[in-house]
Amino acid sequence: MSGKIVQRLLSRTSARSFGTAANATAADINPIMPAFDYEPPQYDGLSKEECLEIRAANVNPAVHRQTFFRDRPLFVAGKGQYLYDENGKRYLDLIGGICTVSAGHCHDGVNKAITEQISRVTHTSNIFMHSKIHEYSKALVDKLPKESNLSVVYLCNSGSEANDLAMLMARAYTGHLNVVSLRKAYHGASATNIGLTSMPLYRHMAQPITNISHTMSPDPFRGLWGGSHCRDGTPCQTLRTCDCGPETCNAAGMYANQYEDHLMAICPAGKGLAAFIAEGMGGMTAAMMAPKGFYEKAFDITKRYGGVNIMDEVQTGFGRLGTHFWGFEYHGVKPDIITAAKSIGNGFPLAMCITTPEIAEAFANSSLHFNTFGGNAIASAAGHATLKAIDDDGLMENCRVVGNHFLEGYNYLRDKYDNVGDVRGKGLMMAMEFVETKETMKPLPLYKVNAILERAKDLGVLFGKGGIYVNCLRIQPPMCTTIADAEFTIQVLDKVLAELAEGLLDVESFNPNK
């Protein structure tokens, strides 16, 4: 996709309505996928049956066991916001390789940059000079506010690796060991930083947790404090009441106090903190949004205890939030280190850690740091081309316009259906949380969530799932997704949720106890 895509969408936003009448039945709702001018190439690779056999025997069991969907579609082509299976069926991809496809599947500009670089130099290691790492590092720094002082780039291969590096930097710079993250956070699954992650599904019984601890998650939907005024810059607020005003948030101070109480316990005499790390918006927690002002307060507390602040931008970076290129800009804070991956390369394995010259110098003086593939010529070309595509195609603004359209549609569905307890997000980082009823707000059982996912897939929409109870739809599509796609999605969810409410959705066949 090339050229600005936003202008042709703006005029259409107010001209459409969501779904059908409140008294419409599931049979009345007939979603129609938007037209798309693309014919996928003929597929002549392994059959689905062959892939399933190899997956069961030779691919790691964790991947095999968590493969989505009963019929296991085999995706063989992609373009823009769509994926195609081995039979040529088209699907709207609303999880984008888990928040990874930014410019769109098989973006022409990104593909061209990769293939051109492959024909020149594939790899030299960064102990030798090649131009791409320098072009790309400068382009990344140019995307950061000058006043941030974030100007030294470390390129690596995954978000886990970037967060490992950030933690090592913080400890080298401060001379302290204690690192604090939030409960419900996900920062990777490497042996070093698995301790930062506190999602139950990813915790290991024998994980190393030395000098890593967690403070209370600032969750205005399921946390102790928060309500209908706490989320900033989004049309989606919780249904809870609170004593906050439109411009102030008391919940933010409550959660910040919990963080300081935690530091008083682990940092005797106010010393010993290396870092506080948090996501710009919860990823695996399904777009959990901290109350407005929380990060400003938390970052100030970190500084008082001698630590540095790390903002994990693995899922919030590169314009996905619509109004800001980085999550830390949205929160109005100044981190000492940021990490990013996923959207950074439009699907190419790539990540980064950027810090200040002072921290970089301290880290360099503490030990030799080297990364064989960090700054690889092809990866740097892919990353630079992705940055250019985000700018040239107007994708950050598209995230704002289309994201708001999605979110208004989710508000409509929450008002209509008792099983929708919360909707949240900003830009094209969104979530919908399912509950048994709004009265109890108990999480909808996983097997029912799986039934919803399966039915949506049959109708042509692919969602992710997440949240601490795995009862949420994770919605982080390619940033080129359109308003027509948003309306199609709302219609699909409208139909599926109507089927659930009317007892027409096949849920019991997903029940593991049946």
Keywords:
514 residues; alpha/beta; seven-stranded mixed β-sheet; four-stranded mixed β-sheet; 15 helices; 15 strands; globular; disordered N terminus
Give the topology, please.
Layout: H1 7-10, H2 48-58, H3 61-65, E1 75-79, E2 82-85, E3 90-93, H4 96-99, H5 108-118, H6 131-142, E4 152-156, H7 159-174, E5 178-182, E6 212-215, H8 250-266, E7 273-279, H9 294-304, E8 308-312, H10 327-331, E9 337-340, E10 351-355, H11 357-366, H12 377-392, H13 395-416, E11 420-426, E12 429-434, H14 446-458, E13 461-462, E14 464-466, E15 472-475, H15 483-501
Parallel strand pairs: 3-13, 5-6, 5-7, 7-8, 8-9
Antiparallel strand pairs: 1-2, 2-3, 4-10, 9-10, 11-12, 12-15, 14-15
Helix pairs in contact: 5-12, 6-12, 7-11, 8-9, 13-15
**What share of the residues lie within helices?**
25-40%
How far the N terminus sits from the C terminus, by CA atoms, comes to: 47 Å
- Main-sheet strand order equals 4-10-9-8-7-5-6
List segments where confidence is low: pLDDT < 50 over at least 5 consecutive residues.
1-16
**Oligomeric state of this protein:** single chain
- Helix/strand-derived class? alpha/beta
Mean residue pLDDT: 93
Count the beta strands: 15
Strand percent estimate: 5-15%
Shape: globular
| Helix and strand element order | HHHEEEHHHEHEEHEHEHEEHHHEEHEEEH
Give the radius of gyration: 23 Å
Q: Let me know the largest β-sheet.
A: 7 strands, mixed
Question: What's the number of helices?
Answer: 15
